[in-house]
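re: ur msg from earlier - yeah i can do the 2-acetamido-2-deoxy-beta-D-glucopyranose complex, just paste it... oh wait u already did. ok heres what im feeding in:
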Amino acid sequence: MAKRTRPILGFLMLLSAIAIIIMWWNDDIISMNRLAAVIPLSIKNGVISCNLDKTSPVEPETLQNHPLCPNRKRKHFPHFSYPPATPRQWITQMDTTNSTFSQFTIVNDTESYSVCDQLELLIEARNGYDEPKTYGGDLFRAKIFTRNASFSAGSGTDGEVIDLGNGKYSALFTLKWAGDVSINVILAVPSEAVFELQNLKETLQPRENYLGKFEKEIDGNNVEEDVLCGPVPERRLTSICNLSNPSVGLTWYCQKPKSSLLSCSDWTAFRTLEWPSNKRIEDEGYSRRSSVVHRPAVRIKGFPKHVIVNSKSGDFISEQVDRLPVCGQQHDSLQVIPWVAGFYQNKRWYPPTCKVNHFPSDGPERKNCLANKNVYFYGDSTIRIVHSNLIKSLFGANLTVGKEEHDIHLHYRFHHIPIRKFFWYKLSTLYFITNELDGIGSNETAIVVICLWAHFQPLYRSFYEQRIKSIADAALRLLNRNPTVVVMFKGGNTQTPYGPRVQYLNDHYARDNEEALRRILKSYPKIHFLDAWDMSKGQLGKPNTHPPKPHASNLVDQMLTIACPRDV
Ligand SMILES: *[C@@H]1O[C@H](CO)[C@@H](O)[C@H](O)[C@H]1NC(C)=O
Ligand SMILES: *[C@@H]1O[C@H](CO)[C@@H](O)[C@H](O)[C@H]1NC(C)=O
Ligand SMILES: *[C@@H]1O[C@H](CO)[C@@H](O)[C@H](O)[C@H]1NC(C)=O
Ligand SMILES: *[C@@H]1O[C@H](CO)[C@@H](O)[C@H](O)[C@H]1NC(C)=O
Ligand SMILES: *[C@@H]1O[C@H](CO)[C@@H](O)[C@H](O)[C@H]1NC(C)=O
Ligand SMILES: *[C@@H]1O[C@H](CO)[C@@H](O)[C@H](O)[C@H]1NC(C)=O
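and the outut:
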């Protein structure tokens, strides 16, 4: 039996490999559609090997020039968020991708490089027996950086690390500064964990348990009841409250309170239950599954670990950055499939396709930009840190002074449920972004900055998409009735999840949402985009849900550049 099925499986894998290669040549949309179509192969007896060595690690070039290096064409990259294509079965930890033995080498390494040269890495995934892996699906992340007493710089890969499908991966960089450039490659999520996480997302819903409080005052007495809630009417509930609200992009159900005194309209509060009440992979009798899912991200070894970029061409990139259009002037900075990375240099972030104006925190430019305007921040804590950074730089801790001086109005509101916090939120204190946007007047001078992703990680992708679409539609209505308003979305960023949180929050889930967000926003060309994902890939500090300095201040510069292109 086994002998007869192998060639068939091999043939299927070859077919899908050919399909993938064809897709790479097509546009974004086709590769996105592919995501929906791919069903992970079910392979009975563990690993099968498959000769994909003919796959070229070098991507075909496009006709467009590289924005930072016009002497080069830019590459074509495959899909942003590729689905796991690993076998379902692995026997022990030793079969899984092992960060001790996995390694990278530089393809065609030379003595010296110039700015704008391409640096290419070949990453080889190996298992605990130090054997090469034969299938893909690992989530590797790679960056280059330089740091000494007087200089620092960092940049992620152009595009995502490319999965060659055979246990090998290709990482491409554009060298953007001169000096001793170090290379850092981490195994963020082993392929076996990517597979489990994907599987969990599809089969073990809801990943988290949510509660709803229903309450009502009757004759001076408070009647209240807490019930289970979630995005699907699950557990074959005979009596449910359908609390969905299509106008704000919410699908939500709660058990109907048992008390006949309470009705569905008495829903007053929301909370997330603590971890132990959730469905967890440990509970599913697969401790080995959790062992691979809970593994921390680890740096892998490489040969050599750094390259020398000669200083002759040192200032070339800064001249080139100066020639880029100012961010926000052209609505084309959104890379649905990332293909070229920006870079940090001495605490300033340079996006790859447009120029950011610097608004020094001690200069008058920030206040001039925002004077007599309403600035609305909507979303999660990763946009709240930008709001806080702006407040601090404008007014110190004292907002009232600024208000009196410049009539600047900064607002922040959280994005309504889901909220991954373990205490009660009264619904009367929560606001849907869609409704907030619909409330902005046609004669207001306003800047709107929106970001939501982190709290949506454990939920269905469609749950997230529905919300984003609703908000983007509201933004479009706003822009139509008030074309002076500037609306921008910020994307998500890389994180370092740890412990049991990893099964709810991880870079595989975050990247999946990021891809959904970009694909949706592509249809709203009037909405601007701040690429925090690319920034976090290139940052010197460790990945964190709240990325370390100077992440927020660079987002402020980008935001103000888009809002006030002529003020500098
Ligand atoms: C590496 O060098 C060899 C020999 O010069 C060449 O054939 C090959 O195309 C090069 N590969 C890359 C990725 O540059
Ligand atoms: C990696 O391989 C080494 C050597 O076989 C082993 O000791 C270690 O436990 C493995 N790591 C993981 C995370 O499985
Ligand atoms: C630090 O790096 C920069 C850029 O590569 C270089 O120009 C400078 O000489 C270096 N300084 C030291 C002290 O190594
Ligand atoms: C819940 O209500 C929404 C909107 O009113 C509706 O689209 C959906 O079908 C309802 N769900 C069920 C299970 O009836
Ligand atoms: C903020 O500034 C105002 C006006 O100068 C002052 O009255 C108030 O005490 C200050 N508040 C704080 C917390 O410093
Ligand atoms: C904006 O319009 C509303 C209603 O049309 C009006 O009440 C308000 O005074 C206007 N505000 C400004 C700043 O013009």
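cool cool. DSSP finds 13 helices and 25 strands in the chain. ping me if u need the other ligands too
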